[in-house]
Specification:
Amino acid/polyamine transporter I; mainly alpha
C-alpha cells in the first residue's frame, strides 16, 4: 500500500490559505466573461449560438466516447479487487451516516436540474422522439420518452461524478496530496503538478464548475419565477429573475459561511425530506399504477437499450440534430459539474471503500433518480396520453412551468405548488453553497478550510454569471445556459480522460 499521510503539503502560503494564481486566473476569466457579455450583448448571444453549434457538431463523438470510458472504469472498480481499498487507510471510519451521505450527494448532485426537467423532458420527447422512425404523440413515443430521459439522467451522469470523486478522495486521503484537481494528475504531470500546468488545470476546473453551477441556477431561477407567478401572481420577466438570483444567492452565501456540517448538511437533509413529501403526494394524487408499474418497465427498457444508446451517434440528419441538442448537452453539463460534485462527495466520503463509494454514488442515486422520473414523468405522460392538449402545450411553451402545470391537475394544487416552490429554492441554495465551497477549495490550493471571504466571493460570482447568461440570452436564455456548459465541458472532458488513466495507475500501485 502507498503510505498514508494525514498532513498534506499545500502549494501555497498557509497564512493566506489562498492560491493567488488559481484564484486570480479563475476570477479574471469569470469577470472578463461578464463584462464582455454585458458590453457586447447583441453579438455575445450570436457568438454563444455559433460556438455551441460548432462544438456539439464537431466533438459530439468525443463526449459520447469519454462518458462510456468513465462508466467502464467505475464498473471495473466495483468488480475488481481494488474495490477493497479504503479511503483514508484501513482504520478510517466514515464521517457521516449512510443516509446523511446519500442526502448530501444527491441534493448537491443534480437535484435542481432534475426538478426542472422531470416533467418537461418526457413531454418534449413524447412530441419529438429521439428516433425519427417512432411516431410522435403515441404510446410508443411515451415509452421511448422515458427511456431517453432515464438515459440522460442515469448511470453515465453518475459515472462521471464517481470517477472524479474517487480520484480526488484517493489522492487526498491515501496519498496525502491536496484536495484539488491537479492532484489527480500527479502521476502524469510529475514535477509540473505544482507549476503552470497544474495551475491551468485548477483554473479550468474552477471555471467549469462556476459555469456548470450557473447553468443550473439559471434553470432554477426560471422555475422559481414560474412558481411565484403560479402561486402569488408575480410577473415572469428577467428583472424579477435578477432579483430572485440576488435573494437566493444571499441565502446560499449565509449557508456556505456556516460551513459543511451546519449549513450544507442541514439544508440537504431538509431538502430531501420536503422533496420526498412532494414525490409521495404525486404518487397518491396521480395515476399511481402507471407511475409504479412504469418504474419497472422504464428501468427494464433503459437497461435493455443502454448498450445501443451508449454507442448511438445519430444515423441520419434529424437524429443527429436531436442528439446534439439533448445528449451532447447533457454529457457536457455533467462533465462541467464534475469538479464540483466530485470535490464535494470526496470531502464527505473519507472512510468508505472504493467499492462502497462507487456503488453508493453510481447505483443508489441513479435508483432514486429513476424513481423521481417515473413518478413525475409518468404522471405527465398520462396527462398527454389522456388527451390533455392544454397541459402538453403549456409544458412545451414554458418548461419552467412544467412542474406547476402537473400539480395544477391534482388536488390541493396551491398548497403543493408552494411546497414545490420551497423544494426548488432549497435545491437552488444547496447547489450554490456546495459549488461555492468547492471552487473555494480549488482556488485555495486544496486547503480543506478555505477563507470565508473567498466562499462569499464565489457564491456571489455564481449568481452574477447566472444573471448574465439570463440577461444576454433574453428569449433564448435556455440556449445561452446550455452553451455555457458545453463550452466549459469540452476542455474538462479531455482532462477527465487523463484523470481516469491516472487513477487506474495509482490504484494499481496502491493495491500491490
Amino acid at each position: 500500500m502507498v503510505p498514508q499521510n494525514s498532513s498534506p503539503s499545500y502549494p501555497l502560503d498557509k497564512t493566506q490559505n489562498t492560491h493567488p494564481v488559481v484564484f486570480l486566473g479563475a476570477a479574471l476569466l469569470a469577470l472578463g466573461f461578464v463584462l464582455l457579455s454585458i458590453v457586447f450583448k447583441e453579438s455575445a448571444l450570436e457568438a454563444f449560438m455559433a460556438v455551441k453549434a460548432n462544438v456539439v457538431s464537431q466533438t459530439g463523438w468525443f463526449f459520447l466516447t469519454a462518458t462510456n470510458l468513465f462508466l467502464l472504469v467505475c464498473g471495473f472498480l466495483i468488480l475488481s479487487q481494488r474495490g477493497a481499498i479504503r479511503l483514508g487507510g484501513e482504520e478510517a471510519t466514515p464521517s457521516y451516516s449512510f443516509p446523511t451521505w446519500l442526502a448530501m450527494l444527491f441534493s448537491a448532485g443534480m437535484g435542481i436540474g432534475l426538478v426542472f426537467w422531470s416533467v418537461a423532458e418526457p413531454i418534449f420527447h413524447y412530441g419529438a422522439p429521439s428516433v425519427s422512425d417512432i411516431k410522435a404523440s403515441t404510446e410508443a413515443a411515451a415509452r421511448m420518452a422515458q427511456t431517453t430521459t432515464f438515459f440522460h439522467w442515469g448511470l453515465h451522469a453518475w459515472g462521471i461524478y464517481a470517477l472524479m470523486g474517487l480520484s480526488l478522495a484517493f489522492c487526498a486521503y491515501n496519498r496525502g496530496l491536496p484536495l484539488t484537481i491537479r492532484s489527480t494528475l500527479e502521476p502524469i504531470l510529475g514535477k509540473h503538478t505544482d507549476g503552470p500546468v497544474g495551475n491551468c488545470v485548477d483554473i479550468l476546473a474552477s471555471v467549469a464548475t462556476l459555469f456548470g453551477v450557473a447553468t443550473s441556477l439559471g434553470f432554477g431561477v426560471q422555475q422559481v419565477n414560474a412558481g411565484l407567478a403560479h402561486v402569488l401572481g408575480v410577473p415572469e420577466n428577467h428583472w424579477i429573475q435578477m432579483l430572485l438570483i440576488a435573494v437566493i444567492t444571499l441565502l446560499a452565501t449565509i449557508s456556505v459561511v456556516s460551513g459543511l456540517d451546519k449549513g450544507v448538511r442541514r439544508l440537504s437533509e431538509a431538502n430531501m425530506a420536503l422533496a420526498g413529501l412532494l414525490m409521495v403526494y404525486v404518487v397518491f394524487a396521480g395515476p399511481t399504477w402507471e407511475q409504479m408499474s412504469g418504474l419497472g418497465y422504464n428501468t427494464l427498457d433503459y437497461f435493455r437499450q443502454l448498450p445501443a444508446l451508449s454507442v448511438w451517434f445519430g444515423s441520419n440528419s434529424p437524429d443527429k440534430q436531436w442528439q446534439e441538442s439533448w445528449t451532447i448537452f447533457y454529457w457536457a453539463w455533467w462533465i462541467s459539474w464534475s469538479p464540483f460534485v466530485g470535490m464535494f462527495i470526496a470531502r464527505i466520503s473519507r472512510g468508505r471503500t472504493l467499492r462502497e463509494f462507487t456503488i453508493g454514488v453510481l447505483i443508489v442515486p441513479t435508483g432514486l433518480t429513476f424513481l423521481w422520473l417515473s413518478v413525475f414523468g409518468n404522471a405527465a405522460l398520462a396527462q398527454a396520453l389522456s388527451g390533455n392538449i392544454e397541459f402538453v402545450q403549456l409544458v412545451n411553451d414554458n418548461q419552467a412551468k412544467s412542474l406547476f402545470a402537473l400539480l395544477d391537475v391534482m388536488p390541493l394544487s396551491k398548497i403543493m405548488s408552494l411546497i414545490g416552490l420551497i423544494v426548488i429554492i432549497l435545491f437552488f441554495v444547496t447547489s450554490s453553497d456546495s459549488g461555492s465551497l468547492v471552487i473555494d477549495i480549488i482556488t485555495s490550493g486544496g486547503c480543506p478550510d478555505p477563507p470565508i471571504w473567498q466562499r462569499v466571493f464565489w457564491a456571489l460570482a455564481e449568481g452574477v454569471v447566472a444573471a448574465t447568461l439570463l440577461l444576454v440570452g433574453g428569449d433564448q436564455a435556455l440556449e445561452a445556459l446550455q452553451t455555457a456548459s458545453v463550452v466549459t465541458g469540452l476542455p474538462f472532458a479531455c482532462i477527465l480522460v487523463f484523470i481516469a488513466f491516472s487513477f487506474l495507475k495509482q490504484t494499481r500501485v496502491s493495491y500491490k
